[in-house]
């Protein structure tokens, strides 16, 4: 098992241990609280229930003018249902019920506020999670009245909500009616602006004066002037194109030389129609002259000269026609430029006029669109107004009752099984809480860890509860094993073999110190030790009762007189075990124990006996035990389980150490193994020595247990036969 599992198991065992230890307290708390719950349930008045089941309908509270697709069944949030649910218990819902049923008079109450308080105290409303269902329960000693009040509360809620919903809608209708009036005024102003814009733009009906297209809302305005603007723009472009063409023709002709001009005259598109014929004749003359030259005629030949003269004349005609053509092109170019300038000026004026008209048209169109929008809005608002006005007359039910309250024949309160169950659970929880609280507040020693943590010394033995005096029992006794463990641990914790004097102390009376000493002495004597028991408790001596002898003569006699030690030491029936009674009780026991005579006594008995055990009074409150702790070699503390607080236990150890004593260890005494099961590991010898493991089997074991129990308090030897005084010749 891992560490976490072990830790969990340990906590579970600790919890169970607390429950076992405080079982009586838990049972008592359970019984008392359960009985109180039963008594209260019995004396409580019997009340009948009026039960109503209904659903809260989800009604639209606001008027929406434009969203016609929105229905009344909108998915409201759970907060809406919760708000409506809480209004059921509000005074506005309950006061009408009180007045209608005259509850203040019926209940003989001074005011309706008192009636409201009583009504609320008996009214129980519940809402279903993720549902519109609501339950109204009213409890009263009169079954008929309980049903009537429950039904009236449901009806009052519906009436109040109808009134609230109608009031809200009426207020919304008033606001909507005022908005309609305001919109009509705005529409009238928009119509006036539209008429004024129509007059300025010269619009008759829906058409512009002079023709054009329809003035639809949101459309474009078109007119003949628009077409005129387009023509002027085209004329201006044509003029520009003409200027470019003429300038190109002039530049082309100006670049040609006379010969090139004559040669290309036929392709220049000259205005003279004869140029083509002249050019053809010039070409013929060139061919004729070339023929004459080829025939051998020279330049000065009359025929050649005649041909040259004709060619010169034709060339002159061509050059003249070309010059005239260029002059004509230049004139046309100048005219085209003037025309373009005039077109440009006229076009600018037309544009400005068109822009002014367009602004008027736009103003009219905007005003007309505004009128159209306001008229559409008014139509919607009027339609919604009349719908909601009609809806007020047909208000939807705010709730649907599925189950009305009827008089019941059986009281619903008090719920006896539930009250008793709650009383039992509360009693159990209170008992457990009280048990764990007391366990938390309990600072007594509970386990070995507490002893070793706070004292820093080992636990020498764990002695179970109800262990008797061992030397008075006969036969087999497993209780002796605890003292044998104690004897072994003391032996191994001695500093030296000479440290054989052990004082036994406790924090208070009744912790089992004397019984522990007698049983320890008994098992040591059985183990072969010569043991001397000294009863040094000069306040309340008790060791002599375990041997049934008188303590009239003993330690005090030896310390105050010259009597011999042999005269006060008694031989017990147990072999090797000797006893020194306390003697008569002195007035100053601490002074007597803190004497040189006592020191000499301790020194002498240490040399004569193997083990000296000194019984001392409780160390807290008296100084006797501190004196004995200083004289002894070792001190053993006996602690009763769950009795002494931890801080007192620490003070016991501190008291021993303050006088120079040495605490050898602690005996945890009187441990209840039935309630503290964790100590069973330290007392497992009971199981080991169980009768089922003995040779005689189970039957013999049962017989032996009965015998041991019967003889636990029986004495082996009684009176003077049990203990005898030592003769002078006895050797210790």
TrEMBL record:
Keywords: ATP-binding, Coiled coil, Kinase, Membrane, Nucleotide-binding, Transferase, Transmembrane, Transmembrane helix, Tyrosine-protein kinase
Coiled-coil region list: 319-370
InterPro entries: AAA_dom (IPR025669), Bact_polysacc_biosynth/exp (IPR050445), P-loop_NTPase (IPR027417), Wzc-like_C (IPR005702)
Domain (AAA) ranges: 509-656
Record keyword Electron transport present: no
Transmembrane segments: 23-44, 418-438
E.C. number(s) listed in UniProt: 2.7.10.2
Pfam families hit by this protein: AAA_31
Reactions that this protein is recorded to catalyse: L-tyrosyl-[protein] + ATP = O-phospho-L-tyrosyl-[protein] + ADP + H(+)
Keyword Calcium: no
Family stated for the protein in its record: Belongs to the CpsD/CapB family.
Stored PANTHER family: FERRIC ENTEROBACTIN TRANSPORT PROTEIN FEPE, TYROSINE-PROTEIN KINASE
Name used for this protein in its record: non-specific protein-tyrosine kinase
Organism per entry: Prosthecobacter fluviatilis
């Amino acid at each position: 098992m891992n560490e976490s599992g072990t830790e969990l198991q340990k906590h579970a065992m600790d919890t169970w241990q607390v429950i076992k230890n405080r079982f009586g307290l838990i049972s008592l708390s359970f019984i008392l609280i359960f009985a109180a719950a039963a008594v209260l349930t019995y004396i409580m008045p019997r009340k009948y229930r009026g039960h109503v089941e209904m659903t809260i309908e989800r009604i639209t509270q606001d008027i929406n003018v434009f969203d016609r697709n929105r229905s009344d069944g909108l998915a409201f949030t759970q907060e809406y249902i919760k708000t409506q649910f809480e209004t059921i218990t509000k005074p506005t819902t309950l006061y009408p019920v009180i007045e209608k049923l005259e509850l203040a008079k019926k209940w003989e109450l001074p005011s309706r506020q008192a009636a409201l308080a009583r009504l609320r105290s008996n009214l129980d409303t519940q809402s279903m999670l993720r549902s519109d269902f609501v339950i109204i329960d009213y409890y009263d000693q009169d079954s008929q009245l309980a049903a009537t009040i429950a039904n009236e509360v449901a009806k009052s809620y519906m009436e109040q909500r109808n009134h609230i919903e109608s009031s809200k809608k009426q207020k919304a209708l008033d606001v909507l009616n005022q908005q309609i009036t305001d919109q009509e005024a705005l529409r009238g102003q928009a119509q006036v602006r539209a008429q004024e814009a129509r007059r300025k733009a010269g619009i008759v009906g829906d058409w512009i004066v002079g023709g054009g297209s329809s003035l639809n809302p949101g459309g474009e305005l078109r007119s003949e002037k628009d077409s005129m603007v387009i023509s002027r723009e085209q004329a201006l472009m044509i003029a520009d194109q003409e200027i470019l063409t003429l300038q190109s023709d002039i530049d082309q002709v100006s670049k040609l030389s006379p010969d090139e001009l004559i040669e290309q005259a036929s392709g220049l598109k000259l205005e003279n129609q004869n140029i083509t014929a002249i050019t053809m004749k010039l070409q013929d003359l060139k061919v004729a002259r070339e023929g004459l030259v080829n025939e051998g005629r020279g330049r000065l030949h009359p025929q050649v000269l005649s041909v040259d003269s004709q060619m010169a004349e034709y060339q002159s005609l061509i050059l003249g026609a070309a010059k005239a053509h260029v002059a004509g092109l230049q004139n046309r170019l100048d005219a085209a430029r003037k025309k373009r300038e005039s077109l440009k000026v006229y076009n600018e004026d037309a544009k400005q006029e068109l822009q002014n008209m367009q602004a008027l048209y736009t103003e009219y169109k905007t005003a007309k669109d505004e009128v159209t929008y306001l008229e559409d809005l008014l139509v919607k608002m009027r339609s919604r107004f009349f719908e909601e006005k009609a809806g007020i007359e047909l208000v939807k039910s705010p709730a649907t009752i599925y189950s009305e309250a009827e008089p019941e024949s059986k009281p619903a309160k008090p719920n006896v099984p539930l009250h008793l169950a709650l009383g039992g659970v509360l009693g159990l929880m209170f008992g457990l809480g009280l048990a764990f609280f007391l366990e938390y507040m309990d600072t007594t020693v509970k386990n070995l860890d507490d002893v070793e943590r706070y004292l820093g010394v080992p636990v020498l033995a764990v002695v179970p509860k109800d262990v008797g005096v061992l030397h008075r029992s006969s036969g087999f006794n497993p209780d002796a094993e605890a003292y044998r463990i104690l004897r072994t641990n003391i032996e191994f914790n001695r500093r030296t073999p000479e440290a054989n004097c052990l004082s036994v102390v406790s924090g208070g009376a009744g912790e089992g110190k004397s019984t522990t000493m007698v049983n320890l002495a008994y098992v040591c004597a059985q183990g072969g030790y010569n043991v001397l028991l000294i009863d040094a408790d000069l306040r309340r001596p008790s060791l002599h009762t375990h041997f049934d002898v008188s303590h009239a003569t003993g330690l005090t006699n030896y310390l105050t007189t010259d009597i011999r030690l042999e005269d006060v030491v008694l031989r017990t029936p147990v072999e090797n075990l000797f006893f020194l009674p306390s003697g008569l009780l002195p007035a100053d026991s601490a002074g007597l124990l803190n004497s040189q005579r006592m020191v000499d006594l301790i020194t002498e008995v240490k040399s004569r006996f193997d083990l000296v055990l000194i019984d001392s009074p409780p160390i807290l409150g008296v100084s006797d035990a501190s004196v004995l702790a200083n004289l002894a070699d070792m001190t053993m503390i006996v602690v009763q389980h769950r009795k002494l607080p931890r801080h007192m236990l620490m003070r016991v150890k501190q008291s021993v150490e303050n006088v120079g004593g040495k605490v050898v260890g602690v005996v945890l005494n009187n441990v209840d193994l039935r309630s503290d099961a964790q100590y069973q590991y330290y007392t497992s010898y009971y199981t080991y020595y169980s009768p089922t493991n003995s040779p005689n089997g189970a039957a013999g074991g049962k017989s032996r247990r009965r015998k041991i129990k019967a003889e636990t308090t029986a004495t082996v030897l009684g009176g003077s036969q049990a203990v005898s005084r030592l003769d002078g010749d006895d050797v210790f």
